[in-house]
Specification:
Length: 303
């Protein structure tokens, strides 16, 4: 038996268009994988397959344990099978299944993506970085934005998994929004340190570039789960900032990043600058407004 499904079958079809009796070969997101037992005692796999058009249950009856070793729940999988009707519900009887590899395993085909054009957002990000005049902060931003791997991660990452900006590109969209608000705040309050606040706005969530995994769903890396994006961001800034920033600037920036969800969380910690307070509030404004637009406004419980 070959290690994976053949690619020579009929062209892939969207799940929403599948009909009983149809052969199907394609790449899908596997969002359920359970090993069950039939009445006969034989093992089989109960799966759920998804694409951007919908979801369909699937079953693996032949070679279930063998095929189970070729993929995991959360993988993008290449499937060959046939659509059947069972108890008035369509399902795929799977002949072959294996983890998808290479270009066909692009999570952008299966995960929600930003509504706004990422190239346009990239342009806004660079324009905001250009408003930072301090040589140390400007050099730090230039080094970060000049890192192709980090820049690609910034374009791909969501901001959250199930709250605001919970889609690929959400981090870039949120970063540009907070940076824009920060620039406006500095125009309204000229005594704010624009170099510090704008730099902090553009890097406050940078740890999220190391927080997520991408497959059938958005997951967490081990370091994202155990450390969180604030700690990851501080480590990244410490790596890149030591050679570019003096101690005063490095500490002021780290404090803004550390407190951008609020000053609580450590005994005796308080906001140490107006810029830190501004970042905390501006970050919360964009998150709350975007969350309300995407998920609605939570109503208070009846009393």
């Amino acid at each position: 038996m070959s290690s994976g499904p053949s690619t020579a079958a009929s062209p892939p079809a969207a799940i929403a268009t599948l009909r009983a009796g149809q052969d199907v070969v394609g790449v899908f997101a596997c969002t359920r994988k359970d090993r069950l037992q039939a009445r006969s005692g034989a093992a089989y796999l109960a799966l759920e397959l998804r694409d951007s058009s919908g979801a369909i249950p699937a079953r693996v009856f032949r070679d279930a344990d063998l095929l189970a070793g070729r993929f995991e729940r959360g993988d993008l999988v290449r499937v060959a099978g046939r659509v059947e009707r069972f108890r008035d519900e369509l399902q795929v009887e799977v002949r072959a299944i294996a983890r998808a590899e290479g270009e066909e395993a692009d999570p952008a085909r299966f995960l929600p993506v930003a509504y706004r054009d990422l190239d346009e957002l990239d342009g806004f990000l660079e324009a905001l970085a250009g408003e930072v005049r301090d040589p140390g902060f400007s050099g730090l931003l230039a080094g970060l934005l000049g890192d192709a791997e980090l820049r690609a991660a910034l374009r791909r990452a969501p901001c959250t998994r199930n709250a605001h900006h919970a889609y690929l590109g959400g981090l870039l969209e949120h970063t540009v929004a907070v940076g824009t608000l920060a620039l406006e705040a500095c125009q309204l309050h000229p005594r704010l340190d624009q170099n510090l606040l704008l730099t902090a706005a553009l890097v406050h969530d940078l740890g999220k570039t190391r927080e997520f995994t991408y497959g059938a769903e958005i997951g967490l890396t081990d370091e994202g789960r155990l450390l969180g994006h604030v700690e990851l961001g501080l480590r990244l800034l410490d790596e890149r900032g030591r050679s570019r920033l003096d101690d005063a600037r490095r500490v002021a920036l780290a404090h803004c990043v550390l407190t951008h969800h609020g000053a609580d969380g450590a005994p005796g910690r308080r906001f140490g600058s107006a810029e830190a307070i501004a970042l905390y509030r501006l970050n919360a404004v964009d998150a709350a407004v975007k969350g309300a637009i995407e998920h609605g406004i939570a109503q208070p419980a009846a009393t």
